[in-house]
Amino acid sequence: MKTAFEIATAVKNGKQSAEAAVKESLSAIAGKDAKTGAFLEVYAEEALSRAREIDAKAKAGKPLGKLAGVPVATKDNILLEGHEFNCASKILSGYKAVYTATVLNKLQSEDAIIIGRTNMDEFAMGSSCENSAIKPTRNPANTDYVPGGSSGGSAAAVAAGMVPIALGSDTGGSIRQPASFCGVTGLKPTYGRVSRYGLVAFASSLDQIGPFASDARDCALALSALAGHDAQDSTSATEAVPDYLSGIKGGVKGMKIGLPKECFGEGLEAETGSLVQAAAKKLQALGAELVDISLPHTKYAVAVYYILASSEASSNLARFDGMRYGPGAKDAAGLTEAFEKARGAGFGPEVKRRIMLGTYALSSGYYDAYYAKAQKVRTLIKRDFDDAFKTVDLILTPTSPTPAFKFGEKMSDPLAMYLSDIYTIPCNLAGITGMSVPCGRTAAGLPVGLQLQSRAFGEPALFKAAFALEKAGALMEADAR
Amino acid sequence: MSVSEKDVRHIAKLARLALTDEEIKLYGGQLGAILEYIEQLNSLDTASVPPTAHTLGMENVLRSDEPRPCVKREAIIANFPQREFDLLKVKKVIE
Questions:
Q1: Burial (Cβ within 10 Å: 0-12, 13-18, ≥19) of residue A62
Q2: pTM for this model (two decimals)
């Protein structure tokens, strides 16, 4: 499949129609998605009619947006008015969105075409898509393996070449980890960089929407359409949006890249570690300076995250009471029982587990020991990054300690599942930006990703390094041929 | 470490979750294991560390008080699981 950049350029130059781009995407979905299971719903007719509108606009000589004719998939927790959205949960079965998320309005105003919604872990809680109440999604690299999560459907859709760009949401790694498992590029923008109006809230101090794409340039292009302040989201940042594409070819010469020792030790699978190290050496060969650094509080990040994210989730998910939408409880004796039955039957095991954990952490007598304590350790984790960025421009780590795992492998042990986000979680806690970039495959053919992190609003440096790495990789592959 | 059945039932009540006996047992054990993992935070002295609730450091975001269109009424009503005319029907609130 062509990249978004190539499609938009071709549509703007009249070399390709938006309709042809949409048809190509629809036929890829028809051919591949029975095996992958990335999509929950495809808006074929609507996408085609929107494409014809864009083609008519082009014919009339009207200016086209920066994503002209680009098919985009969205995650099942980002709302598009009039369409059903479930967050892959039974509790939202039948719910139709009553307004459109700002990010989807922005994509459409740049003439992108929303082609369907993708599978996810229920309410974005999970690292494998196995927590979807609707169906499994399989890793396009090997269908015996999970695609990662929670945005596993979006990652798989891009990896299988069904769409050039897909949206995900990332609270503790839900874009970067599936990007690494599926072998695509995934960006978690700085907290507040992208509006969350219309994203179903999971953990409000951590959630961020971002793109999946096949390369760094498409990620930069997507972010240039998504970023910016939104009056509908009071937590969105007012910082000016730079031109993410203009400096992308600047190279890494003189860039200082920190390798935290805490992310290359115990728990890191050997093959993953050596692929990530090899990519770091590649950046060094391109002129970057590698610096050994320390983020001493890294080992506390997962504990902090599961207190804060679960607490915020227990509060955010209180709104799902079965009263105003969803199936509700038909046979309850009173109001309280109606809430309990609707929620007990509507939420899946992982969501209930996190609501329980969060409710426990916030309950009378435990608040200081858990929630307040975690917020203080969050400060220490943020300070680690503040200190590191005094001496380095970027921080490079593996995205996840292992490549994709098999179905069922971690379902009975929640803690083991949580630890697959150990390298991505600190970035959300510190509110900075992180990106997963493919860096090769294991001997068994499973993709491995590395994570680049930059200070808040440092996305341009991420794109520059990722672009340089892609070019170096392509050159090395060409040499090998 | 395991969270007692009494505590699990209490938390489920606070969270408005009807759980089966099997779920009560399962969550008691799993929450215990997660809380035990979380215990490691107590090895850090945080007496003089301020909490971080939000990383952007913004405060008091105000908007102008102007009338503007709201979400479509019909679309909201169409989602009601139970209704009478255009009204949302719920269980009796006061016994």
A1: exposed
A2: 0.97
